[in-house]
Amino acid sequence: MGKKILVTGGAGYIGSHTAVELQNAGYEVVIVDNLSNSNEAVIDGITRITGIRPAFEHLDCNDREGMHKVFEKYPGIEGVIHFAASKAVGESVQKPLLYYRNNLVSLMNILELMQEFGVKGIVFSSSCTVYGQPDVLPVDESAPIKPALSPYGNTKQICEEIVRDTIHSGAAYRAILLRYFNPIGAHPTAEIGELPLGVPQNLIPYLTQTAIGIRKELSVFGNDYNTPDGSCIRDYINVVDLAKAHVVAMNRMLNALSDEAVEVFNLGTGRGVSVLELINSFERATGVAVPHKIVGRRKGDIEQVWANPDRANNVLGWTAEESLDDTLASAWRWQEKLRERGIM
Ligand code: UD1
Q: What residue's CA is closest to ligand 1, atom 16?
């Protein structure tokens, strides 16, 4: 049996892809998920890809007693990857307390239980949102943290601080904070992918739902930004590449490969792509047209951000490999698979 890893939010988009890569690397995976933004069929998808059914507990990480029981039921958990969190920027503005409670309490529960059960390391899902609109592009890890534009963004900043403070106080484990840029795409088997509930807020699910005819047209939020074509620029990273970075980070902590107890890495490609470029790439990669129109800016959007991933490349030893076109094609195959299965 491989080393045991607890993956909170492991039925979610990034969590499920990471569970697959952990199992492929020989780890034993225990998933805890409250299924608030996913469903149990995802566990079947992970099983079909890897041939191994991960342990699954339907539970909210805010339930401290329940989480305690999970650590008792699966003795010897060596690492935790903590994805479980609410992530809708707009909703967080409407329901700040829900976001603070959900995202902060769950992390605090995990950190306490890690101490009690002698867990060696935690990977925390952070976001490039902590940089706000960076003064220097591409942005590296030394860039200043800007005041958050939403309660969601604030929870990521506070959670990073909670992890740091806990480690600095002498907790006997390591932590790696991974700042994701924009994860997109799906597993190449189309067995798992992004499954937003309701009307998608993020670009790619809205785009693929438009391409397949569920939505009439994609709104491009603004073409008057100070960018070459006027639309916003992001660093879109393939979700499987992103998942693999978690395996490398876990190996690094469990084998104590670093002198630092807390490390932070940007996970991006290093390439900025505008919304209009992305639409063009999708059409080229799939041959499918995306009806779209330019509308006004979306409140709270950052004009442009992309990663300097040198630290992840050189220190972590991880590099994003998939091309944008292949990644977009994978997102499209996933959308087609949802249609075949009658899900959407
Ligand atoms: C946002 C959050 C990020 C969070 C992520 C996950 C901010 C600044 N960033 O990323 O912290 O981790 O969501 O939920 O809030 N767009 C359109 N039309 C659409 C949808 C999006 O043009 O229908 C554009 C946006 O203006 C943006 C780009 O596409 O330029 C990407 O948007 P989105 O997928 O929502 O991600 P972010 O806003 O970058």
A: 203
